[in-house]
Amino acid sequence: MLRPMLPIALVVGVALAPVCAPADSQFSLKSVSVDLPPGVDMFPNGPDAINNNCLACHSADMVLNQPAMSKVRWQAEVDKMRTAYKAPIDPKDVDAILDYLVSVKGEK
Known about the structure:
Radius of gyration: 28 Å
Order of helices and strands: HHHHH
Structural class: mainly alpha
Distance between the termini: 73 Å
Shape: elongated
Number of strands: 0
Helix content: 40-55%
């Protein structure tokens, strides 16, 4: 059944090719402006360690909207940022960052 239909399909495909030709290939890129919602610029009452290190990649709002976690879980998050994502966090700043995160988003 398929073998007799093959020549017909080929003829129809060739006949329809000009109709299915690509549209005008000219396109243009346009600049787009996006207004982001305002957020907290700095960590409220945060030490320099968290503001100098974490704000390079995260907004304070993003971090402060995370669920409350234990110090062990916050430690794992900071370690992940340093190892997996190569965040240039000075090891001497880690304790201050952890203390702040636990004080504002630690499990109660």
